[in-house]
Amino acid sequence: MSEAVAAASLRGPPDHLTISLGRLLTHPLYSDVEFIVGEEKRVVYAHRCVLACRCQLFHDMFVQQQPVCGPQEANLPFVFPNVQPDVFLAVLEFLYTNRVTLSGQIALEVLTSAVEYGLDDLRKLCVHYISSTLSVQSVCEALQAAVTYAQTDMKGKCLAFIEHHTKGIVKTQGFHELSDPALLAILQSDLLTIDEPDLITCVREWAHVNSVVLSVSVPDTAKEVVHELRLFLLDPEELTALEAENKKDNFIPVDKIAEVWKFHALKNPSAISSHLLQRRRGTQPREHHKYLSLHHKSKITKDF
């Protein structure tokens, strides 16, 4: 008797399958579903079996579309008016081929779609692309997306980039459009390469822009973020100038400025939150900083 031969699972070149499926993308051949996408109402052809087996969201959409009154309802197109066609096509490209073609113009929106559609592998590809192509102009928008969609790794890479290019980034439109949580993530960093008076000026500009956009007063707009401004790093002359500027818009609560004057009078920072005394990487040295240094040395001694 001949010996039994063990069964084996063999695999052909993976690119062949990818290329073949890619040819079906947006092709009307054998298509059984249509999408009307974007303001320009672009028609996109697709195949239910591919989308349903690759994405639970599409599977549920097709199930809900099961005809009730007759077969004609099953042929009605799905309308996605708020999605850019290029973004939608990038999602379909991934579903058909497990690859995606990204650019700076669509990457963040593809990331949004990936999160909304539950496509974790596509999300990872978007995060990798965005994190590796950061620029002074794009990083704040990327940080905002990272905060909004809880992308911890991408948030960390955005913050590291901001820390190295702070002076240019705080002047961008993207910085002025940050939400409170995204701006707070920046202000909590000790590694920003900017002096505190310059940072305060830029955050004030952020508050004025958002005050107009949100129709909220400047003090209410800034009430959370001002707590992360390190006013104790300013010398008396800078604090006097800040106080005069503050009378125009009440950007910073008066009691916070009073705390700083008290520190300058007593030279005792012991009752102040330690992170507000910490000099950032870009902080220029000032005479009174020696008292902050003594406080930190004293605190370290007590801790040990």
TrEMBL record:
<dbReference type="InterPro" id="IPR011333">
    <property type="entry name" value="SKP1/BTB/POZ_sf"/>
</dbReference>
<dbReference type="Pfam" id="PF00651">
    <property type="entry name" value="BTB"/>
</dbReference>
<dbReference type="InterPro" id="IPR011705">
    <property type="entry name" value="BACK"/>
</dbReference>
<dbReference type="InterPro" id="IPR000210">
    <property type="entry name" value="BTB/POZ_dom"/>
</dbReference>
<dbReference type="Pfam" id="PF07707">
    <property type="entry name" value="BACK"/>
</dbReference>
<protein>
    <submittedName>
        <fullName>BTB/POZ domain-containing protein 19-like protein</fullName>
    </submittedName>
</protein>
<feature type="domain" description="BTB">
    <location>
        <begin position="31"/>
        <end position="104"/>
    </location>
</feature>
<dbReference type="InterPro" id="IPR042846">
    <property type="entry name" value="BTBD19"/>
</dbReference>
